[in-house]
Specification:
The protein has five helices and no strands. The chain has a single domain, classed as Up-down Bundle (Methane Monooxygenase Hydroxylase, Chain G, domain 1). It has helices spanning 3-12, 22-55, 58-92, 102-108, 114-156. It is mainly α. Helix 2 packs antiparallel against helix 3 (58-92), helix 2 (22-55) packs parallel to helix 5 (114-156) and helix 4 runs antiparallel to helix 5 (114-156).
């Protein structure tokens, strides 16, 4: 870009003495819109994962987890690029990158970018919240499944309670120490 043209474009995007490059702003908003799409896809997978956890369908869960990992990797790459843009825009605005929040961005953008920026900020927040809630549900389902597995193992004798009844090989009560014996794990 020619130096004079760059100054002119910066002058057009001044607000309260702060400057913002429209190309960077467009890139940031496009990147955040892409992140919203990925979060929406992740949420759909998370909901499917919930059903698979309830059904105990481990084969399909494994396949779904691979797809989820690919989306998470893609999201991580977008996040790295978004952060670089955030640092650049914050430098233009003469603030620290950590101070450039979505709210501050909405307040700072030129008026013609306001509606798009507000829409992206709203969708981003909603998607992040919905994904967090879905992940919390899956965390609880996994914890319940682990508690069930632990309980089952205790019943099978891996770590039986001290008050459990123990029987001898002949089926008679064994009064030794009241603990269940471990299962023989030899192959």
């Amino acid at each position: 870009m020619v130096r004079g043209t760059r100054r002119l474009s910066h002058a057009l995007f001044r607000q309260g003495g702060e400057e913002m490059d429209p190309q960077r702003l467009n890139s940031l908003l496009a990147m955040m819109e892409e992140q919203v799409k990925i979060m929406t896809d992740l949420r759909a997978l998370t909901q499917k994962k919930s059903q698979l956890l309830v059904d105990g369908n481990l084969d399909e869960l494994d396949i779904l987890l691979r797809g989820e990992q690919a989306l998470i990797w893609q999201m991580g790459k977008l996040e790295e690029r978004r952060f670089r843009l955030q640092v650049e825009i914050a430098a233009e605005l003469r603030i620290h990158a950590s101070q450039l929040t979505l709210e501050r961005l909405v307040e700072t953008v030129p008026p013609e970018y306001g509606p798009r920026c507000e829409s992206v900020a709203e969708k981003y927040g909603e998607s992040a919240k919905a994904l967090m809630e879905a992940n919390q549900l899956n965390t609880e389902l996994v914890q319940q499944a682990m508690a069930y597995v632990d309980f089952s193992l205790q019943l099978l004798g891996a770590r039986g309670p001290a008050s459990a009844q123990v029987y001898s090989a002949q089926g008679q009560r064994d009064s030794r120490d009241g603990k269940l014996r471990r299962l023989d794990n030899r192959v």
